[in-house]
Specification:
single chain, Alkaline Phosphatase, subunit A, 8-stranded mixed sheet, 5-stranded mixed sheet, 15 strands
C-alpha cells in the first residue's frame, strides 16, 4: 500500500473547483476528488493551526488534549501522568503511528513541528524533512523534496508520505514570477458590495481591512503580494485574487507530483488524503486574512479521500470533523488502538470504502488563539458564543444560516431565540459529556482565560484603541474601553 497525505494550510473548501468555486483554482485536486469521496460538511473542531493539527494527529478534542490555543499552557499537550509507561498513549496511537503499525514506512515533509514547538506531531514517522523556513517556505521548496523522495522510492511498496504546503496561509506568498493569473477575471463570489466594504473600513478589531497584519498595517517587504491594508474595492479584489493564487500555486505543485506518479506508472496504486487545518475569513465578520474565529469560514475545511479499492465519485453531506480521521485510518488499515486510549472521533471508513453515509447530528467548534469562542454547527445553522472577543466588538451570541447566508452577514440571534437556545444546549451538553470522561477537571478554554485571554490579544487591546483615536474609527476607543475595561493598560487581565 502507498498513501500520500496532502496537508494544505488555510484552504477554504468553497474556493476549490470540486466544491463549486467558479475559478480554476484546483484542477489537480479536483481530479482526485472525482475518483474518490468528497466530504462536503467537514470541520476542524479546534482552530487555528496548532489546535487543529493536535486534533488531527491525536483523534481527540482540545478539551481533552489541552491544546486549544497558540500560547501559554493551552499550547502544550497535557501529560499522560502516572499511567504513562515507556511510551505515552498520544505517541503510540496517533495518526502517523497507525501507518507504522500497518508496516508502512512513514515520512513527512513539513515545518509544522518546529514552527509551533509541537514535536509530538512527528510521532510515528520514520523520516522527517524540514526545509528550514519555519512555515515561510514556498510550495516549490516542498515539492522539490517530495519529488526527490518519490523518485528514490519508486520501486518500494508500503509507505505513507505526508506533504505539507503553507502557501494559502498568510502572508500570501505566490512568487511574483507566477504572475497575476486572476487580475482580469471577476470574483466568482462577488458578495462584498460598496456598502459592505464601507462597513469593513469602519471595523474595530485585529485583521480588519485597515490592519491586515493583525494590529497594524505593516506590509512585510519579503512578501510583496501581502498588503498591510486594503482601502479600495480594487485593492480588496487584488487581495482576494492573491488568496486564490496561493491555492492555484499549491495545486500546481500537487500537479507536478501527480505527473511524476503517472510517469512512474504507480498513480493508480496510490491512496490519497487531501485536507486542511482550517479555512480563512476573507471579509466575513469584517476580517481579512484571518482564521481567528470559531465560525463557518474558519472551521469548514475540505476532506477528499481516494482510497485504493474504495468508493469513487461519491459526495458525502454528513457532519464530520478532523478527529474522525484517526479512527477511520485505523479501521481502513485494520490495526488496533491501545485499549486505554480513546478516540473522540468516529470512523467513516465505510463511507470511504462503499459510499454509505455515516455522520454526526451536530458539531462543536472551539477557537482560543485569537478569541475565546465555542460554536455549535447544526442543521443549516451555526451558533457562536463569545467568551472573549480578542479586541473585536462581537455580540456575545451570534446565529447565522450558513446555507442562505454563507458570509455571515445577518445575525439571527435576536430573531430566533429558539435556535440560540438549541445551539447553547448543544455546547453545554458537549462540554458536560466530554468533561465527564476527562482525567482533568478544567476545560482548557478557561485555562486560556485564567492566563490572560487569547494569546494573540494579550496586552494588545489598549495600544490598539489608541491607534483608533482621531480616525474615522474613533468610536472604537469608547467601545473597546467599555468591552475590555481591564485591558486598556496593556497588561493582560488574569481572570
Amino acid at each position: 500500500m502507498r498513501v500520500i497525505i496532502f496537508d494544505i494550510d488555510t484552504l477554504r473548501h468553497d474556493h476549490m473547483g470540486c466544491y463549486g468555486y467558479g475559478r480554476d483554482t484546483t484542477p489537480n485536486i479536483d481530479s482526485i476528488a472525482a475518483e474518490g469521496v468528497r466530504f462536503d460538511e467537514y470541520y476542524c473542531p479546534n482552530a487555528p493551526c496548532l489546535p487543529s493539527r493536535a486534533s488531527l494527529i491525536t483523534g481527540q478534542y482540545g478539551i481533552h488534549t489541552g491544546v486549544v490555543g497558540h500560547g501559554g499552557t493551552a499550547a502544550d499537550l497535557r501529560p499522560q501522568g502516572i499511567t504513562r509507561h515507556f511510551q505515552d498513549l498520544y505517541s503510540s496511537n496517533g495518526l502517523f503511528m497507525q501507518f507504522r503499525k500497518a508496516n508502512l514506512h512513514t515520512a513527512s515533509i513539513s515545518t509544522f513541528a518546529e514552527r509551533h514547538s509541537s514535536w509530538w506531531f512527528n510521532a510515528g514517522l520514520n523520516e522527517c524533512y524540514n526545509v528550514g523556513k519555519c512555515g515561510g517556505e514556498l510550495g516549490g521548496e516542498v515539492t522539490e523534496v517530495a519529488l526527490d523522495w518519490l523518485k528514490r522510492h519508486k520501486e518500494d511498496d508500503d509507505w505513507m508520505l505526508h506533504i505539507h504546503y503553507w502557501d494559502p496561509h498568510t502572508p500570501y506568498r505566490a512568487p511574483m514570477s507566477y504572475g497575476d493569473y486572476y487580475a482580469d477575471s471577476p470574483l466568482p463570489d462577488d458578495w462584498i458590495t460598496e456598502e459592505i466594504f464601507a462597513e469593513h473600513l469602519l471595523h474595530v478589531g485585529p485583521h480588519g481591512a485597515n490592519e491586515i497584519g493583525m494590529w497594524t498595517d505593516h506590509k512585510p517587504p519579503m512578501f510583496p503580494r501581502h498588503p498591510g491594508k486594503v482601502s479600495t474595492m480594487k485593492e480588496m479584489k487584488t487581495f482576494m485574487d492573491n488568496y486564490d493564487l496561493g491555492i492555484k500555486y499549491t495545486d500546481d505543485q500537487i500537479g507536478m507530483i501527480l505527473d511524476l506518479l503517472k510517469e512512474q506508472g504507480i498513480y493508480d496504486d496510490i491512496s490519497f488524503i487531501i485536507t486542511a487545518d482550517h479555512g480563512e475569513n476573507i471579509g466575513e465578520l469584517g476580517l481579512y486574512a484571518e482564521h481567528g474565529t470559531a465560525d463557518e469560514p474558519t472551521c469548514h475545511i475540505p476532506m477528499i479521500i481516494k482510497w485504493k479499492g474504495g468508493a469513487s465519485g461519491v459526495v458525502d453531506s454528513e457532519f464530520h470533523d478532523n478527529t474522525d480521521l484517526c479512527p477511520t485510518v485505523t479501521e481502513l488499515l485494520n490495526v488496533t488502538v491501545n485499549p486505554d486510549y480513546r478516540y473522540d472521533g468516529q470512523s467513516y471508513a465505510n463511507t470511504v470504502l462503499t459510499g454509505e453515509a455515516n455522520g454526526r447530528e451536530n458539531l462543536v467548534l472551539t477557537q482560543c488563539a485569537h478569541v475565546c469562542q465555542r460554536s455549535a454547527r447544526f442543521d443549516d445553522y451555526i451558533y457562536i458564543r463569545t467568551v472573549h472577543g480578542g479586541g473585536h466588538l462581537f455580540e456575545d451570541e451570534m446565529l447565522f444560516n450558513v446555507k442562505e447566508d454563507p458570509h455571515q452577514l445577518r445575525n439571527l440571534a435576536k430573531e430566533r431565540p429558539d435556535l440560540v437556545a438549541q445551539g447553547a444546549k448543544i455546547i453545554l451538553d458537549w462540554v458536560d459529556s466530554n468533561m465527564k470522561v476527562s482525567i482533568y477537571d478544567t476545560d482548557p478554554m478557561w485555562t486560556v482565560m485564567r492566563e490572560g485571554g487569547p494569546e494573540h490579544a494579550r496586552g494588545e487591546i489598549g495600544a490598539y484603541a489608541q491607534r483608533l483615536a482621531g480616525t474615522a474609527r474613533d468610536y472604537g476607543v469608547a467601545a473597546l474601553t467599555q468591552k475590555y475595561p481591564d485591558e486598556m493598560d496593556g497588561i493582560p487581565k488574569k481572570w
